[in-house]
Amino acid sequence: MKAARGTFGPEQAGLVLACLFAWFAATAWLRPLMSPDEGRYAGVAFEMLRSGDWIVPRLDGMPFFHKPPLFYWISAAAMGLMGASEWPARLPSLIGATLAAGGLFLFLRRWAGPARATLAAAVLATMPFFYIGAQYANLDMLVAGCIAATLLLAVHAALSKVQGGPWRATLAGAFAFAALGVLAKGLIGVVLPGGIFLAWCAAIRRPRLAGLLAWPPGWALLLAIMVPWFAAVEMRHPGFLDYFVLTQHVRRFASGGFNGEHPFWFYLPVIAVLTLPWIAWAAAALRPSRGPRAPLSEVDWLMWIWCGVIVLFFSLPRSKLVGYVLPALPPLAYLIATAALGATRAGGRWAAAPRWTVIASGAVCIAAAVGLALQAAPPGKRLQLPAGEAVGAADQVLMLGAYYYELPLYWGLRQPVQVSADWTPTAVAQRDDWRKELYEAGRFDPERSAALLIDVRRLPAALCVPHATWLIGSSGAPVVLPWLAQARLVAVDGDTAVWRFAGGATSDPRCLQLKDGVLP
């Protein structure tokens, strides 16, 4: 395969990346954090910045080892520079989207020509699924960008080696991004691009290229980037690796009982609907040809295998969340661009169709961002304390029967909150939600867990402290918790309310009443 000709230097590449980033970031500030996912991951980043502990991610002050730290590092650093708000919280996703779209453009310009590169990048950037994913503060887009960069750099190195060109620096970059992919979301950062690369080598009948994956300097670089964090956390919290690898990887993939259980075919309608109107062009790629089809190129094989492996891999487990298949969108954009360019060669009414589809799809992206912004904000954003009211430095915050992930960030709390619920193992095991996350986090810090996770029967003792307690829960809580009548209602918004309990010594009459049975 010959490389595409034309002058395209670092300045032009930087301009493309800057334009893509600006497009993705243009509406990233419009809406508040969505609960629970955005509130959870932004909250962990805020906790990292607040605590100054850049090694151990924490959820409500307790070690949170569901995911590695790369998202939190980027988001916390951005919050440190720009303040704790939605835009810096979403910066890791914006970077991941820019990396995927920009990497696709640069790779295709080198190996498939400027026209296909430009259209494929435009398709990807204006897919509503991809555009909103770029503005969603969770780990899916960041790892999608790392997977795309790893795979594109590895294939670029392989094709360059076939042509006798320089390849080692590019391959080193692939290993570096694989390590970052692991630090972004775990083992899929290396397993998926590695598996796709091996399948591609077999498909193009160049098995010797598979040996690039065994390149010793690459593995040395990967381990140097990846291992220090894992080793540091295991030393501080023995048992971390077992929990991270077995529970959060193997068991989550191979068994049920986790969030988002869906049938095997779930992602097919998800992709079809969320990539409208571009997905209509995919029909052209699958439509039987009237004449003989041209043989698939190395790039064609890569994109078909890449898209198919991602969708199949994430279709196998019972737990399926929408964002898992974001890594399949870059190759899908290439396949759509190829089909669109093929259709426009006939000229006539089809010639301008891709251009109009870019405009229409971009409008859908903006409309989707505005529509999400108009939705109701989560409780942690809606609940604003009245003028003159503020949580004191010594005050405690106690959430009743729920955990509002985004509230510590929006309120700028300086300490973890207490959470009152039924913390028995039976109750925790019923659902894969905030209760299970906090309970499992508390197992790595039993002392802090005992102070923060308050069983409903321990509420009197938790309230009878010298300082004030701010209680947050359902606005209907006084019906089932009559003792709330002793607290002052401070704010209410819809079904969520805030009360302030002034506190007092354990000999205070109000505390004695609580202990004597007012609490049900």
Radius of gyration over all CA atoms, rounded: 26 Å
| Helical content band | 55-70%
Query: Which ranges are low-confidence, i.e. pLDDT below 50, for 5 or more consecutive residues?
Result: 515-520
Chain-averaged pLDDT: 88
Shape: globular
How many helices in DSSP terms? 25
Q: How are the strands of the biggest sheet laid out side by side?
A: 5-4-3-6-8-7
* Beta-strand percentage range: 5-15%
Distance between the termini: 75 Å
| Structural class label | alpha/beta
- Tell me about the largest β-sheet: 6 strands, mixed
The total strand number stands at 8
Structure in words:
- The structure is a single chain.
- 58% of the residues lie in helices and 7% in strands.
- A hairpin with a 2-residue loop joins strand 7 and strand 8 (496-501).
- It is an alpha/beta fold and 520 residues long.
- It has helices at 10-25, 37-51, 70-82, 86-89, 91-111, 114-125, 128-133, 140-162, 168-185, 188-203, 216-236, 240-254, 267-274, 279-286, 298-315, 329-344, 353-374, 379-382, 407-411, 425-428, 434-442, 446-452, 459-463, 477-480, 509-518, and strands spanning 58-59, 62-63, 396-400, 418-421, 453-455, 469-474, 488-493, 496-501.
- The chain is globular and about 80 Å long.
